[in-house]
Write a structure and sequence with these properties.
The protein has four helices and four strands; from the N terminus they run ααααββββ. With about 140 residues, it is α+β, with helices and mostly antiparallel strands.
Length: about 140
């Protein structure tokens, strides 16, 4: 049985960041739908949308079209890069007391500057973009 499962999953695309996002998104939608007792139509719509997201996640997980799934994941990462870096910058700001972290508006790179310098002009080392922030 183990060998049959290994043969079945051989060549499948598997899990990536887009699949993780789809899984969490579907889970949140299905949980939210269970709290919609006052509006059953909205609850049913959220539930169906969660099932569609979950089905698409399973489709991507089991797909053998590796290059198409990889390009979908790269487009997702490119589109969500700025938001993921903003969340990471907030995390770093909470963790580090000596430095402030900002996200470059051009390339979405996280830039570290010392705290307590007042309003400063920050130069991104990646794209040489300049922007004003208060450290």
């Amino acid at each position: 049985m183990k060998q049959k499962l290994q043969r079945f999953f051989a060549g499948r695309y598997g899990m990536d960041q887009l699949n993780k996002f789809l899984f969490i998104f579907a889970f949140v939608l299905i949980v939210l739908s269970s709290f919609m007792k006052n509006s059953p139509l909205l609850g049913m719509l959220l539930y169906l949308l969660g099932l569609v997201a979950w089905g698409y996640e399973l489709y991507r997980l089991m797909s053998k079209d590796y290059y198409r799934r990889k390009s979908e994941n790269e487009r997702y990462l490119k589109a969500s890069n700025k938001y993921r870096h903003q969340v990471m910058a907030i995390y770093y700001n909470l963790k580090d007391r000596n430095n402030s972290y900002f996200v470059c508006p051009e390339c979405a790179k996280i830039v570290r500057v010392p705290k307590g310098r007042g309003s400063i002009i920050i130069h991104c080392p990646n794209c040489n973009c300049s922007f004003d922030r208060k450290s």
